[in-house]
Amino acid sequence: MPKRNGRHPEKALTAVAVRSAKPGRHADGNGLYLEVDPSGAKRWLLRLMIQGKRRDIGLGSASLVSLAEARETAATMRKAARAGGDPLAERRAERRVVPTFAEAARSCHEEHKGSWKNGKHADQWLNTLEAHVFPTLGAVTVDKIGTPEVRDVLLPIWLEKHETARRVRQRIGTVLDWATAKGLREGDNPVRGVTKGLPKPKGQRGHFAALPYADVPAFLARLRETLKAGPMVKLLFEFVVLTAVRSGEARGARWNEFDLDAKLWTIPADRMKAGKPHVVPLAPRALALLKAAGELRTSDDPSALVFPGERLGKAMSDMALTMLLRRMEVDATAHGFRSSFRDWCAEATNFPREVAEAALAHALESKVEAAYRRSDLLEKRRKMMEAWARYCEATAGKVVPLAKARRPQG
Fold first, then answer.
1. 39 phi and psi, to 5 degrees?
2. CA–CA separation, 176 and 157 (whole Å)
3. How far is residue 382 from each of residues 124, 234, 243, 389, measured CA to CA in Å?
């Protein structure tokens, strides 16, 4: 093409020129071009600056889109780009086919099939959605599902089959998170605030408000940045989350219980609920928290508390953790993070159930299981706790709104 001089052309093409255009690129002006292939095929191209980046956008074949139509479309896109929008993304969104919840659930299930603990669990995951969600939301596209729709699905089973409802809620959340990651919906996951609109189950004891495990990384990110607590309280809370121990076991931790070279913490029997010693494998992040606590240490006594309270020689109270959550406006309990960990094990990993139960130091259910777990599964638990710590770190920089969930916890 010959080099142009002076001003860029504006509406330089005519309908006759389009029909007789030779191979090459022909400028109409304002970034609109007619491209002609050696074969004679013709198409429209719009060159735009979108949010600081040059983008080329195809506007269709010249045999289907007239010069006037191409100019009109180009003008609309230029206006959107000048306003700071992204007309290319908007165009893709218009062309996107949004699946129904049932379609999304099956696709999500298929993509995660390699992570299921076993075939029975994989079948159960989808079967509960088919039984309790598909009849109501199965035909609704995922971008149209909000908190009211999720609440209406859960309400019929929330009191009568609360444990089932809790699992259904978690699985709906997984499907909607999957859809968001695929660019099929926008905004917060409606599952995270749904329990505020559901009645509180009666006659159930031992339930602790817990965050969905998907919210734990964001909580830890906020925890590290908050000015609403001192450094020792924040170190203790994160240590409780990463080790999945009961808060009292961490609050009472003493330096002589740790073998930092072996990366192990042995909690003596007299401080355990089951009355038996419990060995906790320590992930690298947990070791870093201990190092940070050591830098604040004021006593060389091997039996000194790792996370002391304000009163000399006294352990930090559980209320210190509770008040921290209240100041951060997080509707959960410190103990509830054990539930978050347990749900993560079941829903997002293929670690066997007995390994997760051993990590939580739960009482054994049978003599057969006791015999099977005689080894304490220490190395498998170490891999699991390291994976949990990595999960908590992977998205810790993304702070999102936090909500609550409930489950029984011993």
1. -75, -15
2. 20
3. 28, 23, 10, 11
> At which residue do the structure tokens 């509406």 appear?
11
CA 252 to chain centre: 32
* Rg of the chain in Å (alpha carbons): 29
**Neighbouring C-alpha atoms within 13 Å toward the C-beta of 364:** 12
Give the tens place of pLDDT for each residue, 30-73: 889 999 988 888 999 988 888 888 888 888 888 888 999 999 98
Two tokens, residue 296: 């604040």
**Which of the two residues, 210 and 15, has the higher pLDDT score?**
15
Nearest to 386 by CA among 336, 361, 351, 337: 351
The domain covering 15-95 belongs, at the CATH homologous superfamily level, to Integrase, DNA-binding domain (3.30.160.390)
Going by C-beta distance under 8 Å and a sequence separation of 6 or more, which residues neighbour residue 133?
Answer: 101, 105, 153, 168, 172
Gap between the Cα atoms of 350 and 368, Å rounded: 22
Residues 6+ apart with CB under 8 A from 341: 213, 241, 244, 356, 359, 360, 388
CATH superfamily label, 213-408: Intergrase catalytic core (1.10.443.10)
Please report, as a single letter, which amino acid is at residue 345. Answer: C
